[in-house]
Every structure is written in structure tokens, then in C-alpha cells.
Amino acid sequence: MRTSLQVVALWGKKAPPHSISAIMITDDQQTIVTGGQEGQLCLWNLSPELQISAKELLFGHSAAVTCLARASDFSKQPYVVSAAENGEMCVWNVTSGQCVQQATLPYGHTAICYYHCSSRMTGDGWLLCCGEYQDVLVIDAETLAVVHSFSSSQSPDWVTCMCIMHSVRVQEDSLLAVTVTGDLKVWDLSSSINSIQEKRDVYEKESKSLDSTNCQTIRFCTYTERLLLVVFSRCWKVYDYCDLSLLWTEASNGGRLFAGGEVLAAHRVLVWTEDGHSYIYQLLNSGLAKSSSPADGRLLRETVSPHLLCSASVEENQSLPFVMGYMNERKEPFYKVLFSGDVSGRITLWHIPDVPVTKFDGSPREIPITTTWTLQDNFDRHQMVSQSILDHFSGFGDEGAAEAVTASEYVPRLDKLICGCADGTIFITQALNAAQAGLLDLGSVPRDSSPHKVLKGHQQSVTSLLYPHGLSSKSDQSWLVSGDRSSCVILWDIFTEEALHKFFLEAGPVMTLLMSPENFRLKDDQMVCCVCSDHSVALLHLEQKRPLLRARKHLFPVTTIKWHPVENFLIVGCADDSAYIWEIETGTLERHETGERARVILNCCDGSRLLKPEPVLAAALETREHGSEGRGPSGCPSPGPGACPALRVEAPWQAVAASSSPRPFNLLPVKTRWSHVGFHVLLFDLETLTERLLPAAPGDADPTGSFHGRDLLRRARSTVGKRAVPTRRSRAAWGPASPELPSVGLAQGDSAATVLEESDGVKWQKKRKSSKRTPPQLSGRVNASLTLDTAKLFLSCLLPWGVDRELDSLCVRHLNISRLQGPVSLGLASNEDHFSLMLPGGDLCSTGLKAEYSGVNLFSRKVLDLSNKYTATLPSHLGISRGLENDCDSWQESNTITYLLSRLFLVTKLVNMPLELACKVDRSFKVESIHKVKSPVNDILPISSFYSHLRNGRTGSPPPERDLSLVKLISCWRDQSVQVTEAIQAVLLAEVEQHLKTLRKAPADSCHVCLGQRDSRDQVRPTAEVGQVEDLQPESLRSASPVYPAVSPGEQDSNSETANFWDSADVPGRCVLEVSESPGQPRQHSWIAKMCSCRVC
Amino acid sequence: MATVMAATAAERAVLEEEFRWLLHAEVHAVLRQLQDILKEASLRFTLPGSGSEGLAKQENFILGSCGTDQVKGVLTLQGDALSQADVNLKMPRSNQLLHLAFREDKQWKLQQIQDARNHVSQAIYLLTHRDESYQFKTGAEVLKLMDAVMLQLTRARNRLTTPATLTLPEIAASGLTRMFAPTLPSDLLVNVYINLNKLCLTVYQLHTLQPNSTKNFRPAGGAVLHSPGAMFEWGSQRLEVCHVHKVECVIPWLNDALVYFTVSLQLCQQLKDKISVFSSYWSYRPF
């Protein structure tokens, strides 16, 4: 996927379902991470007052999330690892919402522990995993590659739970694990690090049967360094770790099943059940039972007996399964928190007192719930900001509430959005208009005036839609096929709005409509295949308006449909791994196979082009089964056995990336599993948008400028493409497997230089990637005004409306873009399949925005500071000459928009690079001969002048150093893990301010924003302070200095850094050498780099 | 919504009544049936430690093939582990009889059986606390439960029906080769796996490829059963499979277990279908 793709989510009024199946709180107690059965992760902000608010939804898994764990030292990297039922693993950066690493293993994990031993381990640490396989797997926390395993010599079996025991007394870390059959196993951890790294087998030190099954949790008491709490589903037990003798067994009462537990303090334990109850016990040490033992001649037995101190329970829905966790923090600003998440998506939080005590009469005290929150609460509170795509049609129904959209399809060719509703009507509308109506405050424009068509014919809610022409160019352009709940399929003419034919299938809701592939034709006609909820398949001949085949013998849901092109067979694969072969012409069942043979049959047709690969259909079916739909992806990873992909959004993503002529704007419907709630996602391809606008914008008045801009865009791409070669070599030098770690002995400056070089290399690789794509031929039919409208919509989404009222009105007046109705939910894509979407109100929580900014489309507090820094770096005198005239005409308007977009495009490119690299381990590199590399100096100059040309197409070229400093600034942001969206908004704000400066009535107003934000400065990092110094420099001083925009010490320093940066890039040979010497993982450098750049800039 | 409902209010009331019956009575009936079947299936796997007799009982299986009698084996299965093995191999050329046996102190876990057994017990565990006392409130809840159970059952079945595809070096490195006393000759490889209801033993006879051999060395990929001529590199040597002997024996209780899996999967699916029927009547509520 291209980095330039920007995502805006149009949430509906209903929150997407999130059945929590895993929950954790990050070490800084600022974020709650939950994993859902639908396959998404949700990040919730936890305020210091213990208030919860949902922040972001992370998409990436295609099956239920089974466990979550910290994946690195949290003070260094806020990484969390998630594992799904089908073996997918992802490492997420929970502050930015990006997927850092992903892997799919043939194992499903049920628990993960992060282990790092700083004294003996050089790498990033291990993820110790257990699950549906024997023993404990060791996975590298950074690469997610399997390192080795801890194996057991006695009765190896699945491990259900484990914990890492760190004992100060023994100075040895151990791994305690309990197997399915109830065997406790102990492995030495720290002393076997070397053996594991050398892939030698490490066997358990001890193995003991605990005589109970279904172990849920094992915890070692670090306070006494003696007690061991083991929670089984029917009882919990306390053991003495020294000799593994049983001290106490407490059985569950009332049929409750225990789900977990934790040691609170010395002799104090917390145990919780599956239905959301938790109990705090004091373990009373009964001492040596003097009376009993000596007579028996046995050893003196010490026992403990539990005394219930406190209990806590959830308010309602106690029958739902809960997942709970406990966080024990003894440091001051943190709390002892017990938290739970349930299937309905509700999070409940209890603040556990430091010293839990009983009531005065000795009866257990009830701990009150501190907070509880759901996703829907977020949607309710911030409903203004979440606009569903069809809300503006609500004018039709007088009930006030619009009918829910139950199926939707986007036709990119016509830019039409087709929506089927619950009441059976189908709306066809211009997608861009719908998006504008949903997002923008169009003011005087009547809301329901947008052109649309309504198709009425279905009696029940529409369940599936198909636009045949989108899949096969030979189909009639006017055809639309729709299926509904009552098994009725209608063929429409979308231009005349009439129903051409109705098919009545009588087979339950139509779940999926598919087209036969182009190479498959029966008497030269294509047909539509309907999959119904009674597992039957019907083939319809559209041309002749007659059904061809009814295949009704399937016992299980249909997962695969394949077409045999030669013999006219329809091959249907079912969820139970059986295959049915139907002869299409006669409609007879030719063969029915199960097991291995069925698998062979289903695989053998892989050669023939499929309409949709199987996981797609599986996904579609799974989601549609309950009346919802998800458009399938092409070529997504096949889900594990039986795993049903919950939500497939990556598909169109890939489709967008793969389509031969990329579209600047795309809209895709998203539906979730087990529910009807759906939402839409808008995709803006910044690159294509910029490309299309460039030739159109400056027009005849400045042909050279426009040509220049475009030419430079291309040139920049091709030159950076060549730069990839040395990097490729350096990659080869790293070796394919386990790169060595960077030598620690490097001097600080040196390592900084290396880091910069690396990030440099990174950048070129990324650029190269984009250059691989040939610039699309601009078809003559491109609607220029449509493109411009798209660009305006995009800018509207990004502009921080409400920060500066005057600026807002200037934008509306001179750029002719409309105000937003409220803050938008932006998305951030990490790669093809992984992305995050901000939730309504999500912008308010994490970033420390105060209430004054509610309703303001500001992504984070940082944006203002970044923007100020950017403005400071901008050569200010040029801004004036670039200013717009008061009588701004449309030509200038589009010119400005083009310029702004190209700016934003550059920023995304610059900021995105390292992230992309992290995900591109297996990207194949095009081999280019080395002699093709031109002089590196040539490579750099065009780029720098490219920047300036883009910016100053009409005013002549300024010295490139100015732009270099901008590039440097943005590269610097990247190292400070500034998010792309933040960077984009900051740059946009600064640029818009620059542009419209002359239009302000009083020049003093330009400082308005700066002054307004001064109070927030103290919250920012040292970098920001330096930036502030920069800001305070009088403008005259800045413009007086020709080479460096500012002369603050920090600036000087960073400029010398820049020199270094470019210098090193000048010598490709050296670059290779350096990189191969310190081949370490770029991500590991990034925090060093962060520190370095903090120091210098 | 009113227009969507094809039914009158009375009809709708009947439907709701029917759905309530489905959730409160029928679901539990099916779940109980399911539980009975799965318990029966898990009995076949004889969980070690759970039985009162402590160790699972031993069963002997005589492995043979209908074709030749070059390999004969008696394998002793104890739960999910092979506790004894006696394999007689008639060397093709010399007609020498080679006897292979397990070491006394070691057992070989058949991981396929273990995994299948664990998946079944997970499925049972999912069903345990959904007895009559539990009230299902929504259909979606039942669907989710069924999805989870079906996932475990499908995996259990797949573990038995699809043996691992191993490469020859993986077979050579596996612990099974170290199980024999006296140690396995270097020109022999042994693999044991489950295929459907059968316990299969394969013996590969190898010969070393000469370094100057004109044969094109191409290491074989992973397979359940390698064919003669498959080559691989082990240590510093290049080896080629010259003979493959496969003998098998039906394990009756595995057959039962597979039937139980299929039946319970169908039960689950039927229950899901019943719930889904109602979903088409009221599309809005989380039925």
C-alpha cells in the first residue's frame, strides 16, 4: 500500500461491536488495550483520574484475539504484542497505533510473557508463548521469529498458563508453567539463555503433578519469595515454592469458575471468576500445627488459611464471560487497579485500596466500581463528530432516524455509492457528495439536494449488492443485482431505475452475490452466483433472465466457489472441508468428496482464475451470515482452520494499490462480524491526487512552472529509485538471518551519524518503492472539478478548524473549502493489512487536549508546536510574495490547493519512511546494476530543487538550503515519533497561515496562534523548548541570515548535523560500509536517534 | 420496520414465542446431546491421570501391509503415547532380518492424538458452564459459542486427518530416531503418524550419494510419505531414499472419535442454522 494513502472513517451512530477477549493495561497506566473476538484491538485512554475513553481501533487480525502482552521494555518502546486464534501475531505501537511487526505462525497462542534479561541478553528480549502446542515457544520480540523452545522430557503437553519467577534471593529467573493435564514444570530462564540462542534443547528442571486440571493462572509471590498461587477453574491452591508442598486448597462455591488471580502483597491474594466476581483474601499463617503433627510422625506441616477481606463484582450481565486483569503498582502516581472486559465490550475498573480491610464486624467489604465504559459511550458522547454516510438522507423518512444501511457497494468507475437499506430501498448517490454531506458543514446548500436515485422493489432488507460491470467489463454498464432477506434477487437498470427482473430463490437470505469469471462462459454469457443462508447456491443467467442451477445439498456453509472453465463444473467447498461438484448445464451433482480428496479437488482448480479467492468468500460468508457483509480482499492470507475472518478491510486497500490506474478517492464499506453495524472508510490517495492536480492547476498562465513541477516529481522519483542500489547491497551485507547487533562502543557522534545514514537509506528505499510504479496515464476523462472537490474535501478533513477563527473564515473564503461539522476520525495505515482508525472523541483523550479544544479538529496538542516550528523554518519573506490577492479567482484557488497537497505529499513521504521499512522485510528488490548510479550529488540537488519548485513554482527558486532545513525538520519529527497525521496537519496549518497571511487585516494576527499556545509549552519535550527559542527570534533576524533561517544555538547544531547527513549520503560506498558494519535493526536505533536529535535540534 | 415485517402482530408473537423456546429449551437439549457425544469421544482418548486406574491401558497394534511382508511391526499405544515398539525389517538384498525396539525407559508422544484430545477437552470445557441453569439471552450468544466449539472440533478432526508434512532432515532430527535400542542404523529412518483412523509406520532405507555422483542433487520438500529417490542432506552427507516401507493398522477408537467429531459438528451447524432462521425475521435486534 502506498504511504500517500490517507484514511478518514465515517462512523455511524452505532459503535462497531467489540467483544473483549483479552485485556491489559500498559505499564505507564495510560492505555488500556483490549482484543476482541471480531479481531480488532481497541486502545482506551486511561486518565490519571481513572476515567476511560476509547481512543483507537486497530485492524489487522482476521480471527479472534486470544492474548495480549507487553512486547518490549515499556519505558523505551510502547509495544504490545497480540496473538490471534489462527496464529497471527502483531506487535503494535500503542501510542501511535501502528503495527510494527507481524508474523503468522502455525501455532495459536493462549498466553505470552515478555522476558528480557538485560545482563545476559543483547537483543530485544523474548516472547515466551504457550498455546495449542507442546511446551513453551521462544519467539524473538522484535522479529517475531521462532528462536527455539523450552521442551520437557516428562509427559510433554500443551501449556495453559505460565509466569516468570524473578527471585532476588536466588539471582535466577525461572519459568513456571502448568500443562493441560495439571503438571507444574519449572525451567531455568536466565542460565539457559545461551543454550536457547544456540538452539540446544533445554529441559525442565522440575515437573510435578498438581492433581487438578484446567489451570487458569500461576503466580509467584515476589513479596515472600515463597508462596505460589495456582488458580484452577474449580479451585485455587497455595503452594510452598521451596518444596512444592500444598498449603491450601480453596474450592469454588456456587458453581462459579475461577478465571485468574494475582498476588496483591505478602499473604494477600486476589482471585477472580469467569463471571466478573473477584475476592481478596488474607492468607492467615496458621503456623506450625503443633497439636496434630508430631504424633503422626510426619514432618511439621505449615498451612495457610484464607480469610475473605473484600469482594468486588460487576453490576449487570453477570452471566457474560469476563476477562480480567490486575495491575499492581506500588509507585505513587499509579494505582492498584483491577480491570475487566466483557463480551458486550464494557470495561469495568476497580481501584483496589492499598490495604484492603474487612468491615468492622469482620464481614467482607464490597469494593465499589470506579469506572465503567463502552465503545458506545464514546459514540454517544461525541455523536456530532461521527457522521454516517447516509444520514443526510434521513429527510426521506419522516421518523427522523434514517434506515440502517445493510449493504453497500462502491463503484469507482462512476464514483457512485450504492447503499441497500433495512427497509428494502436502494440509494444510488455520488460518493463524493455523500461524503461531503456527511462530513462538511455545507451551510446554505440544502442537504438533500445532492443528486441521488432510489430503487424500490425489495420488501425486506437488502443483504447483498453486486455491480457486474465493476468485475467484468463485458457486462452491461446499467446492471445492478441485489439480494434481500426474503431470498429475492432483483436485476436493476440503474440508469432508468427500473427492475428488469425478479428472481425468487426461496432459500433464505441471499448472503453473497458473485460473478462468474471472465474466462468462464457458458454459451458466451456470464452468470451470477448467489449463496444463500440455507447453504444453497443458485446460478442466475442475467441475459436470459432465468435461473440455471440450484445446488441445495450442502450441509455446511459454503466457503469456496470455483469454476471449472473447461468442463462447465461448479465446485463448491464447504466449511466441513467437503467438496461438491455440480454440472452446470444439467444441474446434477457430479461428485461429493470429503477429507483429503476434497482438498485436492479444491486446490487443483487454483490455476483457473477465480472470481474471488476462498478466504474472501469465507470472510464474506462469515460476516454475511448474520445479515452483515464485508467485501472480500484479494489475496489476503488464508485464515487458519475454522477461523473466520472477522472484518476485511485490507482488501480494497490492496485493490486500490493494485488497480492499474489509481484513483485519488475511494470509499469502502466495512461491516463487522456478528452484527449489522457498519461504517464507511474514505481513502484519499495523496500522490494520485497531487499528480492529477499538477497539470490542471497552473493552467496556461505558467506552463513552464507546471511542467517543471511535474517533471521534477518524476525526476525525483527516478533518481531516488537509483539510490536504492547501494542500500540493497548493504542489505545483502547484513545477511539474511539474524543481523548482528550494533557495536555499543561507537562514539556518540558516530552512532548518530550512522543512524542518520540508515534512516537516509531507509528513505531512499521507500522512495524507490513508489518510483516503481509508473506514473499513470492521465485519461482524458478525468474530471478535473471532481479531483479538485476531492482535494478540497481532503483539506477540510485535515485543517484544524476552530483553532483560529479568522484563519477558518479565510480558508472558507479564499480557498473555497467548507468547514467540518466536527473533528474527523482519521486512520493510519501501517501496511497492507494493518491500520488503525481513530474513534469519535478519540482525539480528545490521549493527546492532552483540554476542553477548550473540544469540537476542534486538532489531532493533538503537538500539532501547534510543530506547526510553529515549521513556520519558523519557512523562509518568511517568500511567504509574502506568494500571498494571494484579495480578488482570488478559481485559478489561484486550485493552484494553492495543488501546492498544499504536494507539500502534504512530501511530508507523508518523509515521515513514513522508517515505518515502511520496518514492515518491508521481505520486499523483493529490483536488481539494478550498480553502474547505473549517477553521481550522488546529482541525486540530491534535483530533490532539493524539486521541493523548492513545488513550493515556489511561480516566484523563482530560492536557495535550496531553506528547503533542506525543512526536510531536516521533518526528518527530525520522524525520529521523535511524531505521527504522520500530526505532521501533515502541522504543515498544513503552517502553510495555510503563510499563504493567507497577507489577507489578514492586521499583521499582528499571525502571532495569534503562537500566543494562544504559549501556556502549553511547558508540556513539550526539550526539543520543543529549543523550537521555542527559535520562535522567539525576531523575524528580521531570521530573514537577515541568508543561509540558516535561525541562529539559535540549537539550530546551528542541527544544521551541522544536517551537513553530516548529506555528506554521508554523498558517498554511496561509504554508506554501504557503515551500514554493514553496524547492521543492527533500524528500529532499535530509532530511540537512540530520538535522543540524539533531541539533543541537537 | 413495520413494513419489513411480513407477519402480523399475532404471527410475530408466535415467532417470538418460538424463538424463546429455541433459546430456553432446544438449545440446551442440543448442548446436552453435544456434551454427551463429546464426553464419549474424550473417553476414547482416555485422559491420563483422570482415570482412577492411573495409567491408561495399553493396546497392541500389529502393523502390516497387504502387499509385502518386508516390514512387520507391533506398536503398543498407551493413551497418546507409544510405549513399546517392535519392528522387524527384512533387508531387501541380504534377506537379513533386522529387529528394532524402543528403549525401555522412553515413551513417544503421538502429538496428533494429544492435540486432538486437548481440542476435544477444550470444546467440552466451553460447554460445561452452559448447562440448564444458564439462560441464553440472545441468538448471537449461541452462535458465538457454537463457533468456538466448532473451531475446536474442526481442529481436533484436522489434526487426525492431516498428518504433518515433514522433510527428511526433520524426520532424521526428530526424537523418534533416538528412541530405539540398539540405536537405529544410520541408513534407516523411521516415522510414525496418524492418518485418519490409522496408525502408520514408515521405514525409509537410505544410501549415501557419492560426492562425484552424476545424479542431480535436489533436496526433497516436506511430505507425509516420501517416495524412493527423494534426496536430502544430513550432516555432511547427501542421502537418497532407496526403499520405502509403509505399514499401518486401524485404531478402532480413533474411528469412533472421528465419527463423533463429524456428528457433533453437524449438530452444531444445525443449531446455528436454527438460530439463523430467526435472524431473518428481525434483522435489527441482536436476535
Description:
- By secondary structure, chain A is of the alpha+beta class.
- Among the domains of chain A are: 131 residues, no CATH class; 156 residues, 7 Propeller (Methylamine Dehydrogenase, Chain H), CATH 2.130.10.
- Chain A contains 26 helices and 52 strands.
- Chain A has a nine-stranded antiparallel beta sheet with strand order 2-3-4-5-52-51-1-49-48, sandwiched between helices.
- In chain A, a hairpin with a 4-residue loop joins β31 and β32.
- In chain A, α10 packs antiparallel against α18, α11 crosses α26 and α12 crosses α17.
- The C terminus of chain A is likely disordered.
- With 287 residues, chain B is of the alpha+beta class.
- In chain B, the strands form two sheets. In chain B, strands 1, 2, 3, 4 and 5 form a five-stranded antiparallel beta sheet that branches. Chain B has a four-stranded antiparallel beta sheet with strand order 6-7-9-8.
- In chain B, α3 runs antiparallel to α5.
- Chain B starts with 8 loop residues before the first helix and ends in an 8-residue tail after the last helix.
- Classes of the chains: A alpha+beta (1097), B alpha+beta (287).
- Chains A and B meet through loops of A and α2, α3 and α5 of B.
